Amino acid sequence: MTSNEEIKDTILKNYEDLPSNQKRIAECILENFNRVPFLSVRELSLISQSSVASVVRFSKRIGFDGYSEFREKIAGSLQKQINNTEFFALFDGKAMSNDTLKSVAATDIKNINDTLSSVNRNTFNKAVTAILRANHVYTAGLGISYLLSEILSYQLTQVGVKSSNFRRNSLLFLEQALFLGKNDLIIVFSFPPYSKETINLAKFCKDRKVRVIAVTDKQSAPASFFAGYVLEVKSKNMLYTNSFAAISVLINAIVTEIAVRNKAEVKQFYEEVETITQE
């Protein structure tokens, strides 16, 4: 059975070559992926502001006989995902409106639940493998994403991965990216309102054959179309900013997975650090 991640990957890989009307369809499907099994071809055409014929042509362009087969494949992949998903228990919603602490915690728990469901484990493992194989790992982001990218870069160094964070200084992101080689890798953090500088950085690196991992809130986020691996993390917040609870879980999971795979190297690294600090 085709997985939802494989379907999304197929859409993303074909996105750049699609005509503008089919790009709208692709974006609409990625943003409403769980709804597609319940949408007729006409309903999807209305939502995506395209024609029925364009939806059918799009389905064929990405490898299906038509929209019916495309919709059935998504329905089957979602059913499989639902059967295999594990969730944390949410707080009881009663009387929560008068308890800000519980309300915020419930929102963040939902973000973590949704992230557990949206992050494909195969993609996660491949992303970690790419990090381990890179000569040097760079991280980048702006606003709250800058802080998150800095945390990831720091934690990567703590498990023996050569890592640096792009900084906002006299050099623009694209100028700093000129120093990246084809065997390097960059992890971009991109959340609403999606900094144009971060998106341009991801595109620039992809064009230069530098591997890109995007940590963002949805498969149709701008940076996703320039990334080899997309780690979808939910960041909904009660305020106008992005919550970073689920993002922190993902960062911790990446670093932990690296430590598990490289126990000997990590042990040696900490032994050397301890020796240095005792001198």
Give an overview in words:
With 279 residues, this protein is an alpha/beta fold. The chain has 2 domains: 4-84, Winged helix-like DNA-binding domain superfamily/Winged helix DNA-binding domain (Arc Repressor Mutant, subunit A); 120-278, Glucose-6-phosphate isomerase like protein, domain 1 (Rossmann fold), CATH 3.40.50.10490. The protein contains 12 helices and 5 strands. Helix 3 (41-47) crosses helix 4 (52-61). The chain is globular, with a radius of gyration of 20 Å. The relative contact order is 0.11.
Distance between the termini: 58 Å
CATH architecture of the largest domain: 3-Layer(aba) Sandwich
The CATH homologous superfamily of the largest domain corresponds to: Glucose-6-phosphate isomerase like protein, domain 1
Query: What is the third-level CATH name, the topology of the largest domain?
Result: Rossmann fold
Kindly state the number of beta strands. Answer: 5
Describe the largest sheet. Answer: 5 strands, parallel
Percent of residues in helices: 55-70%
What does the overall shape look like?
globular
- Work out the radius of gyration: 20 Å
Provide the structure class: alpha/beta
Count the DSSP helices.
12
Average residue-wise pLDDT: 86
Strand order of the largest sheet: 2-1-3-4-5
Pattern of helices and strands:
HHHHHHHEHEHEHEEHH
Q: Indicate the proportion of strand residues.
A: 5-15%
Q: Top keywords for this entry?
A:
279 residues, Arc Repressor Mutant, subunit A, Rossmann fold
Itemize the secondary structure elements and their pairings:
Layout lengths: L3 H12 L4 H12 L9 H7 L4 H10 L5 H18 L15 H19 L2 H13 L3 E4 L3 H14 L5 E3 L7 H5 L7 E6 L5 H12 L3 E6 L12 E4 L12 H17 L1 H16 L1
Parallel strand pairs: 1-2, 1-3, 3-4, 4-5
Helix pairs in contact: 1-2, 2-4, 3-4, 6-11, 8-11
